[in-house]
Amino acid sequence: MFQYCLFDLDGTLTDPREGITKCVQYALRHFGIEEPDLTKLEYLIGPPLKDSFVRYYGFSQEQSREAIRKYRERFAPVGVLENKVFPGIPELLSHLKEKKMKLAVASSKPMVFIYQILQHFDIEKYFDVIVGSELDGTRDAKEEVVEEALRQLGVLDMEARERHRLCAMVGDRKFDIQGAKAHGLTGVGVRFGFALPGELEEEGAEYIAKTVEELQDFLCRCP
Known about the structure:
The protein has ten helices and eight strands. By secondary structure, it is α/β, with parallel strands linked by helices. Helix content is about 45%, strand content about 15%. The protein is globular, with a radius of gyration of 17 Å.
């Protein structure tokens, strides 16, 4: 059974679809870009927004920073709690803690928003370590977030083979699997998030759970 488990936040523990897409829509409108169909913005859930604005909308670095400022203008007071915990997640976390597993959040979302979400839904209590980015964009790459979470868990210097056997990284996007592979963790994908078709398979996820129940069965399996 795994002894350490790192979780992504958006699309893995919670469904932030409404808040994130409405705030992206709000930011794009500032630049004269109208996207009335919020489902077309779901692919932006997961990776750092500054990279997505550059990649998908051709923004300069300065424009991307302005877009993030406008995004947070709505997100901080409203969008952060246009969110909900996926059914079964609190029970999963409680079960893992009963199994004496050390749990961490490893998200590219700014720390201030992570804490607000976890506290609002009363699931902060399950986590030994919580790591995210800073508001200035520091540590927003998933590999950096995972590294810091492992450091705080005290397993960063663990022998690579043991770390792969004992530590899992759970997430819904390829960036989570990339973070797992960068540090030799077992990469676990979840189908109930926002991955594009084939995304998790192509990135090399070692296991993909269709449901929270399947995820629990895998994480608690005996070697």
